[in-house]
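ok new one. same drill as before - structure tokens go in, u give me an amino acid for every spot. 87 of them this time. try not to just spam alanines like last time pls lmao
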């Protein structure tokens, strides 16, 4: 179940959950020297910080776009065709 599906009728309990988890996350003692791979740390602790993970994915995640890929392939085709014209 999604964390935000728990309180569909009112947003007040959701705000309290988010604030509470963010406070816990801020106070969590994290020793940077012990972390070799940040992704591994998140995999181990994602169940503890579901809301923080959700917010980070949606605000920091890079969304792939099919349109950008099509533009790259079109540009590659144009450049390839220019090479043929120059011969």
């Amino acid at each position: 179940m999604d964390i935000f599906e728990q309180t569909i009728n009112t947003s007040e309990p959701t705000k309290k959950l988010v604030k509470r988890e963010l406070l816990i996350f801020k106070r969590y003692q994290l020793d940077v020297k012990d972390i070799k791979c940040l992704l591994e740390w998140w995999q181990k602790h994602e169940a503890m910080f579901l809301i923080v993970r959700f917010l980070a994915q949606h605000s920091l995640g890079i969304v792939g776009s099919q349109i950008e890929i099509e533009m790259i392939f079109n540009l590659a085709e144009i450049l390839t065709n220019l090479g043929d014209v120059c011969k």
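The chain has a mean pLDDT of 75. and btw The chain has one domain: 3-86.
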